[in-house]
Amino acid sequence: MATGEQKTFHRNKAMTKFILCSLIGIFMFFVTIPYNGKSSIPLDHITTIIRSLLGVYQKYVVLVVIVAGAILPFYKKTWNKTKLDLFFSIFKILGAICAVMYIWELGPAFLHENPNLFPFLFNTLCSSLVFLIPLGGLFLSFLTDYGLMEFIGVFMQPFMRKIWKTPGRSAVDAVASFVGSYSLGLLITDKVYQDGKYTKKEAAIIATGFSTVSATFMVTVAKTLGLMDRWNFYFWTCLVVTFIVTAVTARLIPLSRIPDDYYEGATPAPEEVIKKNRLKVALDSALETSDRSGSIPNNVWHSAKDGLRMICTILPTIMSIGLLGMLVALYTPIFDVIGLIFYPFTLLMQLPDALIAAQAMATSIAEMFLPAAFVVDSAIQTRYVVAVVSVSEIIFFSAVVPCILSTKIPIKIPQLLLIWVERVILTILLAGIIALIAF
């Protein structure tokens, strides 16, 4: 076969993989279809079918995953590697104990009888996530491995620097977080930062502005708050609000004060600016990625394994830190007091149950799912704004904060807390305006 024919063959094969795999990923995550009287994305329908088939046995699947997640740090001998590792290893053990207590109805009765405690954490969150995240991981590779992210990144380059003060390649981080997970996004950010391709300020903006929960987590929030019939409206407005908030916080203290220096010891490698033939460059980048993407079954398997690892990490901390956050929220005035920071803004946006909404949003610093538990029965406007805040606030201690602190990105807990307050307030205002118009 001639060299030219070989190149044409490889390009056509790469093009086919790029188009077909991207379409599969887009279909699974973004196309709403009706099934069994409910309109939702295919990923959600598959999760529902699996849970229905398992019936009462699904709780044992959840238990196995939580116990495995508690054991893994000790098996890998990473449980005391740092103080944070020790802290979260302890809470994972506590999470496994909580799961055992729930299944066999051990411990204080109020933990079982209060629908916002064990029933919410185990049944609503863990029982959904245990299937949703691995399934999301299974199909995630179709969005991330075959050129779609690179294709989008080239077109986003002119906007990223002007709006978010970050390179065009950071669009890949943003998409990775929304369609994958904050852990995937942070992994990319930390590596690119240490390679000298992001400055300290750029890495901090990306880590605190784009590394939000994934679409699969958003499905759980939307399901909990009865928004799945408006899934595409919720997802896309949430994405827009999150990125607008990031554009603002990038210009506020503390992010604006972080120096534009590169990682110590790295060779600075600023991004090449593309000014012409953008479509050709975008397509070439996508096809190059598609061509070296390797075996589809292997990619799917590795992506699914990442999902399994993630639920082993997250589920135990939801049961322990989530429970602690719920207990503090229900039985102490701490979040009531913190919620007063946000009350003037929920009131300004004319949200029904404005004080309850403000106090619910305050709990997001502990765990992004917690606010949903307090507004399940509220009006649609309140449920929508809380659902957007849960995603756009980004900073929460059960998962994202330890992930950020475990990277080389130069940002500390006091700075993270200030960014969290800024993001919640800005999100209330933006999502509140959307709610006033849409509902």
Give a summary of the structure in a few sentences.
The chain has 439 residues and is an all-alpha fold. It has helices spanning 3-30, 42-54, 58-75, 83-103, 109-113, 118-144, 148-164, 170-179, 182-194, 200-209, 215-224, 231-249, 278-291, 296-331, 334-339, 343-348, 354-362, 370-374, 380-392, 400-405, 413-438, and strands spanning 33-35, 38-40. A hairpin with a 2-residue loop joins strand 1 (33-35) and strand 2.
Describe this structure in words.
This protein has helices at residues 3-30, 42-54, 58-75, 83-103, 109-113, 118-144, 148-164, 170-179, 182-194, 200-209, 215-224, 231-249, 278-291, 296-331, 334-339, 343-348, 354-362, 370-374, 380-392, 400-405, 413-438, and strands at residues 33-35, 38-40. Helix content is 71%, strand content 1%. Strands 1-2 form a two-stranded antiparallel sheet. α12 (231-249) crosses α21 (413-438) and α19 runs antiparallel to α21 (413-438). The longest helix has 36 residues, at 296-331. The protein has one domain. The model has no long low-confidence stretch (mean pLDDT 85). It is globular and about 75 Å long. It is an all-alpha fold. The chain has 21 helices and two strands.
Would you report the number of β strands?
A: 2
Estimate nothing, just give the exact number of structural domains: 1
* Poorly predicted parts: none
Sheet with the most strands: spatial strand order: 1-2
Major sheet? 2 strands, antiparallel
Radius of gyration (Å):
22 Å
State mean pLDDT (0 to 100 scale).
Answer: 85
Coarse structural class: mainly alpha
Order of helices and strands: HEEHHHHHHHHHHHHHHHHHHHH
**Helical segment count:** 21
**Can you tell me the overall shape?**
globular
Report how far the terminal alpha carbons are from each other.
62 Å
Helix content: over 70%
Share of residues in strands: under 5%
